[in-house]
Design brief:
Blueprint (H helix, E strand, L loop, with lengths): L13 H6 L1 H19 L13 H26 L9 H24 L5 H22 L4 H30 L1
Helix pairs in contact: 4-5, 5-6
């Protein structure tokens, strides 16, 4: 199959264009590239890239962000400034149990030298930050708020940073 070139060409290839070989060479290169893509599994034979799991996860994460950002504005405009929680104890016990489980699982996986410790360390760090945030933002003024800020600054946030550093180290291994 021969194609004609429209526009300028490289000076060294002018002779080949005159013979009609450049079009053939381009066709051959495109065919070889397509064969390589299909052989490597990067194309499914339909001349369009397959969606990778990472690409799908990226689209889902972007969709979640696109939905949650406006939702935060709606909540800011509609939520009351105070609220009586029906399951206050269960909420805090559940959060602290989740943090303890994530930290314990991280310790276990580190002991076993399992690379998945990075995942549980990230979960533990995230839960520690959430715990600090909710402790401080829901504490009553006075001693309760001072205690919450102290715990957040001296315990929860430094432990979260350690968990993230640990996760980063594990991911680099």
């Amino acid at each position: 199959m021969t194609t004609t070139m429209i526009g300028s060409t490289l000076p060294g290839e002018i002779g080949r264009v005159m013979d009609g070989k450049l079009g053939d060479a381009i066709d051959d290169r495109v065919a070889e590239a397509l064969e390589d893509y299909i052989a490597d599994g990067r194309l499914d034979g339909r001349i369009r890239p397959r969606r990778s799991p990472a690409g799908l996860a990226t689209m889902v994460a972007a969709g979640v962000a696109a939905v949650l950002l406006p939702w935060c504005l709606i909540l800011a405009a509609t939520l009351p400034s105070s609220y009586q929680a029906g399951h206050w104890k269960l909420t805090w016990i559940g959060l602290d149990c989740g943090t303890a489980i994530a930290a314990g699982l991280t310790a276990y996986l580190l002991h076993k030298r399992n690379r998945h410790a990075a995942l549980t360390a990230m979960a533990a760090g995230t839960l520690l930050i959430a715990d600090a945030w909710f402790d401080v933002s829901t504490a009553a003024a006075g001693f309760d708020r001072t205690l919450s800020l102290t715990e957040a600054l001296l315990l929860e946030l430094p432990l979260a940073v350690c968990a993230f550093l640990l996760a980063t180290r594990e991911l680099k291994r």
